[in-house]
Amino acid sequence: MLALLRQPAATDPWARLNVYTGGALLVGGVAGIAQAVTFLRSALRSPGIAGEALGLTYDPAIVLFVFVLEPGKLAVVLDYARWHLVPGLEQPALQAIGLAITVAGSACLIWTDRWLARHFTSDAAAAELMTGGPYAFVRHPRYLSMLLLGLGFPLVFASILGWPLWVILLIAIRHRIEREEPHLHELFGTAYEAYARRTARLLPGIY
Fold first, then answer.
1. How far apart are CA 42 and CA 52, in angstroms?
2. 61-64 long-range CB contacts below 8 Å, 24 or more apart?
3. Is the pTM above the cut of 0.90?
4. Which of 11, 67, 128, 147 has the most neighbouring CB atoms within 10 Å?
5. Would you state the pLDDT for residue 201?
6. What CA–CA distance (Å, rounded) separates 196 from 190?
7. Average pLDDT score over residue span 138-159
């Protein structure tokens, strides 16, 4: 993404890299590194744990959404750097809001991944229903993080392409939740039922 922002023929090749876009890439990079050294390190310790942690055991179709969303992110950055489909979207106030949302989403993701890393550290830990940390507030804090990051992205990069991408992300997450919750109920039974009654899926008091 950083390479896409560079303007090779311009007097200032890095004119499209500013406090908003640079800040979003930096924060996102930190969250990605934190994910690799915490959650993924625990999740990938065996094929069985990886399938459960990544949700491939109960929702392999999620891979199809990834093939749409990841190239879509690059298209958003290209729109900001080259195409400028809707120039009026580039407003410092909107970019600042987008950066704030991105920071919030990244912080939530890092917090959640630290808890997930503990959960998948051992088979004994994975057998326990996780209800602490961010999971004390909502049942799917990682998906909430992704929605926040997806919302901040089109604001920071001032791209109309980011909004249908966010809708696709929302559909993907709803699809995921509809398959994950029955799976968790099967694993944890009445304990999960009680947990689900006292927590919201994504937004406390709303949904």
1. 12
2. 61/175, 62/172, 62/175, 62/176
3. yes
4. 147
5. 97
6. 10
7. 97
